[in-house]
Amino acid sequence: MGRSLDSAYTYLALDKFCKLVFSENYSKTKAITDLKNTLNASVNSDNAYADCLNESQVRMLMQACNSKIYEWIVKPILYDRTQPIHSPENKIDTSLVLLAASNYRFSEDVMLDTEIRKNIVDLCDNLLADDYGMRRYNKFTREDIVSGTYVKIFDSYLNINSQIVHELTPIAQIMLGQKADPIQLVPKHASTTEFLKRQKIAKADFSAQWSIGTTASLQALAKSKINLINHSKIIKYLSPQAESLIKEIDIKIAHYINKTLSLIAGFKDQDIIRADGSKLTGSYSILEAYQAITDLTGKTKWLPGAHTLSWSAAQFYSGLKLALKAEHELRSFNNPS
């Protein structure tokens, strides 16, 4: 998804690994002993695992992850007053808001941590969001190793008419009484040549819009609110700055809940046609993506994406639970029994 997000997840995974493998609390348990024996056996047969049981080496890798996140996220927001990036090449994409929704701590100072998460959410909303969600990738440039020049790249995955078959979109085929014959596009990290080939039938203004960014924004803000309230409970004081920030967060939480609700498609006893011409069955489905398709009159319509997964639904469920928990925490703080 993105280098900064990958770095955060790597740090979190290694942190859990250290707490299990190098902690005295678990060192005598059979599960950890078996794990160490397995790693030792792997080291003897394959040197690739040689550093797994070296705590200093593991923590050096964790520090390297922290350094990248500081360089790409924390420093630009708090000190340079510039945009955070997910990688030097492709600066802004939805992976940033997924990072904001993660359990990674950008700062031990809760107010600063909240400021960073809120900044990321606002940035992605301003640069990537539209009526039907957020674009997964923003426009960026990439070096073409074949020509040695830099070319402009945009998100052409599930783009306008990307499902074209025989010069007719699947929806047009159905409208003409024909059997839809969609081209299945598999999401992947495409090469520059593949990107450019894909862009030939796409338009940057009609990049697919994904609800994963919207639901991740809800998660990120709800987590920030919980962190602020829990910190206030510890110090037994809700500062005016924290109170003001919570009010801002509440407005944005309501916005992302309403935005996600508006992206739910499907009605009881009624099927919705997706962009590849197939039916989206079932009542009330949260779409992974909307994509642009031109109808027989040449008018662009935004239809449910060619495939509908459970990613956004899971994030929305999580975000709603977190938002509810945050509100309960705030009420218990304001009205202690």
Describe the model.
The chain has 337 residues and is mainly α. The protein has two domains: 1-82, no CATH class; 106-337. Helices cover 51% and strands 10% of the residues. The protein is built from ten helices and eleven strands. It has helices at residues 3-21, 30-45, 55-80, 95-100, 110-128, 170-175, 192-199, 212-235, 240-262, 311-334; strands spanning 129-130, 133-134, 140-144, 149-153, 209-210, 264-265, 272-273, 279-280, 285-286, 289-294, 300-304. Helix 3 (55-80) crosses helix 5 (110-128). The relative contact order is 0.11. The model has no long low-confidence stretch (mean pLDDT 84).
The proportion of residues in beta strands is 5-15%
Distance between the termini: 45 Å
Number of H- or I-type helical stretches: 10
Helical content class: 40-55%
Principal-axes shape call:
globular
Neighbour order of strands in the largest sheet: 5-10-11
What is the H/E order?
Answer: HHHHHEEEEHHEHHEEEEEEH
Overall radius of gyration: 23 Å
Structural category: mainly alpha
Number of strands: 11
| Integer count of domains | 2
Mean pLDDT: 84
User: Which sheet architecture does the biggest sheet show?
Assistant: 3 strands, antiparallel
What are the low-pLDDT stretches, counting only 5+ consecutive residues below 50?
none
